[in-house]
Amino acid sequence: MLYAVMGIGLSIITGVLNIPNFAHGALFALGAYSLYSLMQLMGNFWLALLLAPLGVGALGILIEYGGIRPLYRAGHDYQLLLTFGLSLIITEGIIIVWSPVGMSQLPPPLLRGGVDLGITFYPKYRLFVMVVAALLVLGAWLFLEKTRYGAIMRAGIEDKEMVSLLGIDIHRLFTAAFALGCVLAGIAGALTAPIRGLNPWMGVDMLGIAFVVVALAGLGNLLGSIVAGLLVGLAQSLAALVWPEASVAVIFAVMAVVLLVRPQGLFGIR
Amino acid sequence: MRSANNPEARHGSAGTRPSIGGLGAISGPPARQTKQAWLAILAAVLLLPVFVRYAVATEIWIFAIFGLGLNLLMGYTGLLSFGQATFFGSAAYVAGYLLKYANVGVLVALVVGIAVGAASAAVVGYLCVQRSGLYFIMLTFALNQMFYFTAYQWTTVTGGEDGMPGVPRPAVLGFDVHGPLPYYVAVAVLFLASMAVMKRLVESPLGKILQAIRDNEARAEALGYDVRRMKLLAFVVAGAFSGLAGVLYAMLFGIVPLEAIGFVFSGNVVFATLIGGSGSLYGPVIGSFVFIWLSESVSTIWQRWPLLLGVAFVIVVLFFRGGVVEAWARVWAWRAAQRAPTATVRHDAAP
């Protein structure tokens, strides 16, 4: 489910801004670390869970405004280099501010322990994450499908020139889309922290998976991102049961098969 | 500021690329330019060890070979690969393993490395050329990650996080390349050979087709070229170059570190190629020079040097797009303008 959240965020950025966002993984890690520090500071998990992604989103606005905006016409190579540079900066920044050593974060007391589902015993926090992620995915979908801003965003994916001809400030749309993608990455990171713990490179693994999800889904296809995210997550969990060492490789195997059968992605038209 | 008065600069790479032939098209007759560039490179090969340590000098030429391969994709075919470390690392591991456990000779190791680089590029490339644009970039990265994790977890062979140490550097045809200087000479010779091969390649009909794909993919396809196959071919050739560089790298340091197959390595070579100026034969050479020099100097300042490297990336992208070769070409054009005010000055600036 978290893969779907990452996937949607990246898909919005990729679709609307048409840039390769290699900082997405680092922003994910930053979300996790922000949660950790806010927890230390305030001791309130819920508030931290709310504030951490917003902080990441605010940073996203800064990045879009200062770094990406001058590069919209510059070609993917420079955009890639910029976001890659930013991911190095954020990752090293995390090492400096926190530490290179991995840390762990406990879930809030309410969500510790597990529940008996009859067939199996499942940690409460993981259930919570699943529910929250599902709600986020649903919320993002409703936002994009049912609200005016969502409609503008989808229009931006389809045809940027037309959108700006209709009198919509395309730059504000870009900033909003980037910030939204960053917030989603931040939430995913914050939610992950109590499950997998924190380390400065946690974002890199996630970045690869998010790219797979987006590539599977098809260009700017948000519903596709959800399905692809679930598919990848499912493939990985199943592989983890059968052959744990290969669970990462399985994700890429799924991608390879899909690409060979349907080069345009699961839901892609182009 | 710069972008305001130069229409080429505003479009960044997209604007510089159509000037096929890089330097030559903008300033001076190409033949003379080529000769000068070769002389400059030869002088650099001879003089470099005087100024920096042999290991650093050797690393510069290895990285330049790596960059040459990527440049064929990025500069000449318009394919931005963020996964070149896949082929670099795979070749380094396989050849390193053979050198270490099977006592093969250097020549065999080099051939194996090139073959592994090309073969892994064929597999990865086949998947990646199914998509274009952003997806292509993402796929190269994602597959790079897959190779990385394989190397990370296959500890019995690769040593995982510790890398694969103890890669020997046996003699070649009776020549002992164990010392730093002989190895430098060997690498420099291979670099010059790679350079010559790449020059032939980009000037060959195949090279022209690749450039046609870069400039207008739809038209190249309409002309009857199998674009995907051509792209894959470019990918395989680039992989072979990466493989060669990977083996040389393993033998230089006597170890295959896990980083050699990591995505940061892929990013570094993209940076080096861009900063030198992609789409020019000599760009990656200058870029590798600048990059190795930069990373050597910042890595001694501070343990967290990747941060400085990241800052350097951002600064270059925001303020020095176009790279060294383009900046140099502009100086050349300007000088030509000073000498002959009415002559061939405007043709590069006019849109």
Stretches with pLDDT under 50, minimum 5 residues of chain B: 1-29, 343-351
- Oligomeric form of this entry? heterodimer
The domain count of chain A comes to 1
**Helical amount among residues of chain B, as a percent range?**
over 70%
Identify the CATH architecture of chain B. Answer: Orthogonal Bundle
Query: How many strands of chain B?
Result: 2
Helix and strand string of chain B, N-terminal first? HHHHHHHHHHEHHHHEHHHH
| Uncertain stretches of 5 or more adjacent residues of chain A | none
Under CATH at level 1, the class of chain B stands as Mainly Alpha
Provide the number of structural domains of chain B. Answer: 1
| Proportion of residues in helical segments of chain A | over 70%
Biggest protein-protein contact in the assembly: A-B, 48 and 45 residues
Order of helices and strands of chain A: HHHHEEHHHHHHH
- Rounded to an integer in angstroms, the radius of gyration calculated over CA atoms of chain B is 20 Å
Distance between the termini of chain B: 18 Å
Count the helices of chain A. How many?
A: 11
Beta-strand percentage range of chain B: under 5%
- Tell me, rounded to a whole number, the average pLDDT of chain B: 80
Distance between the amino and carboxyl termini of chain A: 26 Å
Structural class by helix and strand composition of chain A: mainly alpha
